[in-house]
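User: Good morning. I'm curious how adenosine-5'-triphosphate would be positioned relative to this chain. Could you predict the structure with it bound?
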Amino acid sequence: MIQKPKGTRDILPSETFKWQYVEKKAQEIFENYGYKQIRVPVFESTELFERGVGDTTDVVQKEMYTFEDKGGRSITLRPEGTAGVVRAYIENGMSSLPSPIKLWYAMPMYRYENVQKGRFREFRQIGAEMIGSQSYLADVEIITMASQLINDFNIPDVELNINSIGCPVCRAKYQTALKEFIGKNLEEYCNTCKTRFEKNPMRILDCKEKRCKELNQGAPVILDFLCEECSTHFENVKSMLNKLGIKYKIDSSIVRGLDYYTKTVFEFISKTEGYTVLAGGRYDGLVQELGGQPTPAIGFAMGEDRLIDVFEKYNRENRVRERKTDLYIATIGEESIDFALKLALELRQLGLYVETDICQRSLKSQLKYADKQNTRYTIVLGEDEIKNKIVKIKRMRNGEEKEIKLDANEIRQIIRYWRPRQ
Ligand code: ATP
Ligand code: MG
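Assistant: Good morning! Here's the predicted structure, ligand included:
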């Protein structure tokens, strides 16, 4: 039997309703903040990610699905959303639209990762990007929106950590200090870290190797090197979050895994699972890096697979339920089939979830199926019902029955506003 590729998942019908719930809720929240959905290609030119994400990152060096297409182009399955969204922003002249531009997406991503809990090779992200504001208020809005997303999913175990990783100006001084620190033990670092030492020493702080992590203990922190502008920006972000009552911790070790970040970076971490559910930050240099005008921007991405895991833990009581069949129309005999199909069509057009027999089964097995489907109401259509235009509707929860007119509007009315018998 052919099996799915390692690191991919089948999300089955018994699960999809949770995903739909999360996606719908996210869309609602995004819309309340004025974000509009954008959809970009699953694959892009490899160069986009090399330039955008950065060619010394794990994502680009180790995790990309890259191949040559039949036309000899180097193509990569998107490992993240921001680079593609920014490319689309530039390519479609969105900079001439009223600023800021607020975008959201829900898309699968592809990374050749070591598969483990919460880490897949195909995974889904829901994210937002705000392009065109350099004010700290944009940071506050994005963080507020992310935190509303987490709160509305009722997952109390998730905490917000923030940091600032400065701009190229403060980073120059910081990198000198960092190289001095790392340089003392460079021989002991892993090979990847060694190759990053000259080009991008900050990346070494994000290394997942145990030995490198140990060596990184006590490294200088960038917060101590922020220039005045970055420092004021960060102070403003923090004080506004305080005013809004949004709880956070400063974590000076957050450097994030993608090179485009500047200034504010943040992560929402699940304490019990130990992984990051949502992460983001400012990326003031990316639009220009990808060929646009210098344009500040900030965004985040939530790992939907991880979110669903945590969400399930805290929402066992099924706040979110699968939709139940409103009505099952059982049929006896040929004439009732015509009638049932027409009635089902009418009721579905009225917005009800209706099922009827399409396997030509016996009445008994139709009713058994209806029961297994968790049907709310059932009617049985025979010759008499059709002739007299009167039918008994049964409420499956308690077996209660009512005699009603056999008419779509009447049935809809009853289902919507069923009152218990006096
Ligand atoms: P990590 O440090 O966990 O590898 P990252 O820094 O690579 O995360 P981002 O690129 O910022 O993560 O992606 C944002 C979010 O997407 C992560 O916080 C996580 O929730 C989710 N995510 C990233 N990689 C994966 C993956 N391989 N499988 C499932 N979810 C993922
Ligand atoms: Mg990663």
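The mean pLDDT is 94. The chain has two domains: 13-167+227-313, 327-417.
Let me know if you'd like a different ligand tried.
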